[in-house]
Amino acid sequence: MNYQFEDDLSFSEYYEHQLIGYVNKSTSFSACKTTEKGYPDIEVKDRKGKIFYIEVKVQRRTFMSIETKIPYSGLKPSETVALNLSDLERYFGLEQDHNLQIFIFWALLNRPCVLGEEEANYYYRLVSELKPIWQKEGDKRKFRRKSGKGDEVDGKHKGVTVNYHFSLKELKLWDKKLF
To answer: Residue 169 has what DSSP assignment?
Structure first.
């Protein structure tokens, strides 16, 4: 059986590889998959060896019931992206404790109300820029979904059930294309 978690993981890894390829071919930076446990997906170095990180999130489903499930969020389905709350909090700690620079990079797909068919938009923001939003909005943007059988792989729970949501209006549009 092909689990949704595994499909999401391989789909996301595809975009990670595309972004790594873009950085290595089209910029003066070098990028590779991160090997540090608990760190974001991609490690990027400049010519002097200074490092920053990128966490890649691919959003291909719309949280259509966001206005009823978390009504005080003030978010609309078409403009909402999510991030695993545990990742967000871990990245806040990594930035603070290790003086790291971490970007969250969202690939947004399958949103016919804001994108054309087969179109993707890319958004990003530094974790340090997301923290004031998280502090201001608090739990109003947190949602815990029920766990399902697609969250388990080989008897282990792998799916994320608690997400934190941001508006596209709070992010920066990346005007480059990966494809």
So the answer is: G
pLDDT (tens digit per residue) in 37-74: 999 999 999 999 999 999 999 987 777 778 888 888 89
Note the pTM of the prediction, 2 decimals: 0.84
CA-derived radius of gyration, the chain? 16
Long-range contact set of residues 44-51: C-beta below 8 Å, sequence gap at least 24: 51/100
Sheet arrangement for strand 172-174: 30-33, 42-45, 51-59, 102-108, 121-126, 172-174
Question: CA 55, CA 102: separation in Å to the nearest integer?
Answer: 7
pLDDT of residue 154: 58
Task: Judge contact between 63 and 80, C-beta under 8 A.
Answer: yes
Question: How many whole angstroms separate alpha carbon 91 and alpha carbon 55?
Answer: 9
Instruction: Please list, in sequence order, all residues whose beta carbon lies within 8 angstroms of the beta carbon of residue 37, skipping any fewer than 6 positions away.
Output: none
